[in-house]
User: Which sequence fits this backbone?
């Protein structure tokens, strides 16, 4: 193999699995260290720059970072990254002074954001401080989009939304609430230089079975029902409730029902329990509240008595896989199952809908009714119109919407500056050695043996009695410190300088996970078979040095490195050093301008 | 040295041996030696050897004297027996322990100061007597604990870190061991575990006195230009005579080597030592030949490594003394007190 190019920002970025997995590439270990140090406000700002909604995401994120976490590969569970983020938000104090200022002068360019969800608000946050005049339109009176309408308050209190939406609005963003946009053409005619469409996936999929129409009064579309609950229009539900669907919306529906008078609430899914789209922790939360989840039951019929809903009939199925691994649900032949109920909540998926975009204005849609977009720039076929969030490529989650928002903001900024939208900025990388003494580092390199700590919950009875009282209490500073110490500091990289190595084997001998090897060079597949410990996970890189004095090379399997720094402590010549590679994504603004011989970040 | 303990978390797919232990089970406390010390590599090789042999740690007794090398038994086999004895007196203590309990595996760990200066007499007599043990000298040519003065194994003419040239003749412990009748003599290099680990495994299983001199560079005091025990010097002057594979009993023996270049030696316990000849004319069963070869190459400034000499049918001290076959701690009244009738008969014979 060729020597690894550690100058490529992606190489060490990938080693920070959590950050690489985060759509917005939040520097996770950086803020976890700040939390451990008690610098909550600093930790909050690291988050805020990257993901705009730390308090909201610290409660509701889909956490793509956690399955990626290296800790999950060396013991049972990953670091509770998401809930640590909440700690930063809970204990930050007043951060108003740390926020960017309103632009002193406007640059004369006007940008419209349609929809006030996380994608639009991210665009607004990135562009407003640069001097753009950003106008956000939304049908609701308050900004927040699905964050406000679909997430129950017992998971996300209103004041958290108000605070973090407020930080965006305070940057001089104009919000036109209660103003439902029903024509893109009108917006375009209104002299906007660019338009960002962040209207989400607003249409809940409906159920198509006999009896649906007749019993319509007590059958509700999940996201609409959640919105109605959120805005206080719906305050009760029947005693017996069926929730159809296996996603996070279904879980929100069933837990909300339980708080609005539902005594006998059941989630029923077509597929197996394991295949449900809901996050494992959300399923746990539902079961903790006494909500059973029945699986492999396909809705067959809505039962009603002259239009009054009485229950639903389901057909029992099992999963069969064909030779290509595709799943088919086949009836088991058991008798159909009747589940009696007073209300049915349908949470079987969301769809995009763009009835308000005229089809004759040059904006192309594909055969599935989705806008034709550039995957990287989010630009539509109408150059001044950009998409992001669920509206771009279908339903995803908040953090992806934020990532889209950042990318679209860069595109809009470049587009309105007359630059090539396709030329994307490289991330900023700050490298700093952590060495303070012979065996002293400016990070805590001792590896904690603790297992993942559970977030304390409010008493169940109290939780179920009020839909607005938050269930999770969050980590207190003591628990937060203990959980933060579980982080392996994967951004503190093991950097190897081959010309300094005397091949004493000190690093090989001390490495607790047998990552380091000195061996003859070869092709990657061959190399992987002759390392000290199995290196079969090809998604994890091998770090290969140039040839050493004995013509061998150093090969390090990045997979389960604990970043404990013992290799560097045991290196007599400083061939190993622990260096922090802080990778920060470039956002819209001066950093995106084409580089005019700017010296590289030190 | 390092302040923090080695993290408990290990590789999730780490290999386990026949006993179900991972290699890390054979570790000891974290080393307090200087970063890059060759001794730590030797400790790692010892850990590897016992792991691969699937030896239960409680069957091992590790004994040492005084010095950097003699500190190392703390850093491996944390669950074994051990005694850090008096300077240069490890061989006597080991001999006594061995006589008392012949069922343990004895690992004597010493250094060039401990064995070639203060303990030279002890070294000589333990080998002469053929105590069943592995005697390892971690040889770096300097007194590391007292700031790097030349030891007795430092080559004449080699230069200290301060620039002083050594005017004394050096003691070659391998040459001495051969001359003293040691039945298994080898030399390794801390920087070459591929060679050292099989040597250790063969020595551990060898039923007699096995001596291994391991050149182990002192990075702090003896790893400079002018030293003859630096990583660079050893790598440049290492004259490997053979490499070996140690194949434990019951393993399937597969042949994948060119004929004539390999010799297989079956041991008493059924295990096999497979010798890959590197120096064509080298015969590891010829004591006199080995001595000549060693001295001829030493005269050229070369360091001969590998399995240098092995006696085919070794005997040990217990055989020579015709001792009881059981460890002393397992003898009870019945064996130890033959009764008054026997005493009477014995006394009668003396009248």
Assistant:
């Amino acid at each position: 193999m060729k020597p690894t190019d550690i100058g490529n920002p992606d190489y060490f970025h990938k080693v920070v699995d959590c950050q690489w997995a985060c759509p917005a590439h939040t520097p996770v270990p950086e803020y976890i260290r700040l939390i451990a140090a008690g610098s909550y406000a600093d930790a909050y700002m690291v988050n805020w720059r990257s993901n705009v909604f730390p308090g909201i995401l610290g409660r509701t994120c889909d956490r793509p970072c956690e399955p990626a976490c290296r800790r999950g590969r060396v013991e049972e569970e990953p670091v509770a990254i998401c809930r640590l983020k909440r700690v930063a938000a809970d204990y930050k104090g007043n951060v108003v002074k740390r926020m960017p200022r309103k632009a002193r002068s406007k640059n004369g360019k006007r940008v419209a954001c349609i929809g006030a969800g996380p994608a639009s608000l991210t665009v607004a946050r990135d562009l407003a401080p640069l001097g753009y005049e950003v106008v956000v339109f939304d049908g609701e009176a308050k900004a927040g989009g699905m964050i406000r309408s679909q997430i129950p308050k017992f998971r996300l209190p209103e004041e958290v939304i108000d605070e973090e939406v407020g930080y965006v609005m305070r940057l001089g963003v104009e919000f036109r609430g209660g103003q439902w946009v029903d024509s893109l053409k009108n917006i375009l005619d209104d002299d906007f230089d660019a338009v960002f469409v962040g209207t989400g996936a607003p249409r809940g999929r409906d159920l198509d079975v006999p009896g649906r129409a007749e019993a319509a009064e007590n059958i509700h579309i999940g996201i609409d029902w959640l919105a109605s609950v959120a805005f206080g229009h719906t305050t009760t539900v029947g005693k017996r409730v069926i929730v159809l669907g296996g996603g996070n919306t279904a879980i929100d529906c069933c837990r909300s029902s339980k708080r609005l008078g539902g005594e006998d609430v059941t989630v029923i899914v077509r597929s197996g329990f394991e295949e449900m789209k809901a996050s494992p922790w959300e399923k746990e939360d539902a079961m903790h509240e006494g909500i059973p989840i029945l699986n492999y039951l396909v809705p067959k019929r809505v039962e009603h008595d002259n239009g009054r809903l009485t229950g639903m009939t389901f057909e029992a199925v099992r999963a069969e896989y064909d030779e290509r691994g595709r799943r088919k649900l086949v009836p088991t032949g058991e008798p159909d199952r009747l589940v009696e109920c007073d209300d049915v909540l349908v949470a079987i998926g969301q769809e995009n809908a763009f009835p308000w975009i005229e089809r004759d204005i040059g904006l192309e849609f594909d055969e599935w009714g989705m806008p034709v977009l550039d995957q990287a720039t989010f630009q539509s076929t109408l150059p001044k119109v950009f998409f992001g969030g669920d509206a771009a490529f279908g339903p995803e989650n908040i953090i992806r919407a934020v990532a889209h928002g950042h990318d679209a903001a860069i595109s809009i900024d470049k587009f309105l500056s007359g630059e090539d939208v396709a030329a994307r900025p490289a991330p900023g990388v700050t490298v700093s050695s952590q060495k303070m003494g012979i065996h002293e580092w400016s990070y805590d390199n001792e590896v904690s043996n603790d297992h993942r700590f559970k977030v304390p919950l409010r008493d169940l009875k109290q939780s179920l009695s009020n839909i607005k009282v938050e269930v999770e209490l969050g980590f207190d500073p003591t628990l937060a410190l203990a959980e933060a110490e579980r982080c392996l500091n994967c951004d503190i990289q093991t950097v190897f300088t081959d010309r300094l190595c005397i091949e004493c084997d000190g690093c090989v001998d001390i490495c607790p996970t047998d990552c380091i090897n000195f061996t003859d060079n070869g092709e990657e597949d061959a190399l992987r078979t002759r390392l000290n410990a199995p290196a079969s996970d090809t998604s994890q890189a091998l770090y290969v040095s140039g040839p050493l004095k004995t013509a061998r090379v150093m090969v390090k399997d990045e997979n389960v490195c604990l970043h404990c720094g013992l290799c560097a402590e045991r290196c007599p010549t400083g061939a190993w050093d622990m260096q922090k590679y802080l990778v920060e994504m470039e956002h819209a603004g001066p950093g995106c301008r084409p580089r005019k011989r700017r010296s590289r970040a030190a | 040295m390092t302040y923090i303990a080695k993290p408990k978390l290990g590789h999730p797919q780490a290999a386990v041996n026949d006993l179900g232990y991972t290699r890390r089970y054979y570790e000891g406390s974290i080393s307090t030696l200087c970063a890059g010390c060759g001794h730590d590599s030797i400790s790692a090789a010892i850990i590897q050897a016992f792991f691969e042999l699937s030896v239960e740690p409680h069957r091992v007794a590790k004994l040492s004297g005084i010095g950097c090398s003699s500190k190392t038994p703390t850093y491996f086999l944390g669950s074994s027996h051990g005694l850090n004895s008096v300077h240069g007196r490890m061989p006597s203590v080991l001999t006594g322990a061995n006589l008392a309990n012949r069922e343990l595996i004895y690992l004597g760990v010493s250094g060039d100061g401990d064995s070639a200066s203060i303990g030279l007499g002890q070294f000589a007599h333990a080998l002469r007597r053929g105590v069943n043990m592995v005697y390892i000298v971690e040889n770096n040519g300097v007194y590391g604990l007292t700031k790097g003065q030349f030891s007795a194994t430092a080559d004449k003419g080699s230069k200290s870190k301060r620039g002083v040239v050594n005017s004394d003749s050096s003691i070659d412990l391998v040459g001495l061991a051969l001359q003293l009748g040691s039945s298994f003599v080898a030399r390794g290099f801390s920087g070459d575990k591929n060679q050292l680990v099989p040597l250790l495994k063969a020595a551990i299983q060898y039923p007699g006195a096995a001596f291994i001199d391991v050149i182990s560079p002192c990075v702090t005091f003896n790893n400079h230009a002018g030293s003859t025990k630096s990583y660079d010097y050893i790598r440049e002057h290492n004259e490997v005579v053979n490499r070996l594979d140690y194949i434990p009993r019951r393993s399937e023996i597969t042949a994948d080597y060119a004929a004539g270049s390999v010799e297989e030696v079956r041991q008493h316990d059924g295990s096999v030592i497979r010798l890959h000849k590197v120096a064509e004319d080298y015969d590891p069963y010829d004591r006199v030949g080995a001595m000549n070869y060693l001295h001829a190459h030493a005269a050229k400034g070369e360091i001969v490594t590998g399995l240098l000499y092995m006696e085919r049918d070794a005997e040990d001290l217990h055989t020579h003394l015709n001792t009881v076959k059981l460890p002393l701690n397992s003898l009870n009244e019945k064996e130890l007190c033959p009764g008054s009738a026997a005493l009477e008969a014995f006394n009668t014979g003396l009248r």
Summary: The interface with chain B takes residues 73-75, 438-439, 445-447, 449, 502-506, 508-510, 512-515, 533-534, 536, 549-550, 560, 562, 564, 566, 569-573 of chain A (CB under 8 Å). The first helix of chain A runs from residue 9 to 15. The first strand of chain A starts at residue 110 and ends at 114. Residues 110-202+352-416 of chain A form a domain with the FAD/NAD(P)-binding domain fold (CATH 3.50.50.60).
